[in-house]
Amino acid sequence: MLSRLAKATGTSLSIGTAAVMIIVALGISVGSVAGYVGGWVDNLLMRLVDIVLSLPALFIILALVSFWGGGSV
Q1: Which of 2, 34, 42, 55 is the most buried (most CB within 10 A)?
Q2: Measured distance CA(20)–CA(13) in Å, rounded
């Protein structure tokens, strides 16, 4: 039982680490483009980020599942 728990913990940690790395890379990319270009591109990207942050995570997950049909809601 302990070995199964240890293996599952390692898997969960690796998935969580990969998700954080993807989010960091995306955030650095968007922030770099917004900071380098500036002007209307900066305003557009920041408004898009504001929209994404205002949506609840559960709503996004439900929309993705219903779009790709990976399971029943």
Answers
A1: 34
A2: 10
| Side-chain-side CA neighbours of residue 24 (13 Å) | 6
Q: Is 34 within 8 Å of 45 (Cβ atoms)?
A: yes
What predicted TM-score, i.e. pTM, was given to this entire model? 0.63
State pLDDT tens for residues 3-52: 888 888 888 899 999 999 999 999 999 999 999 998 999 999 999 989 88
Q: Domains of the chain: which residue ranges? A: 21-73
- CB-CB contact of 29 with 48 (8 Å): no
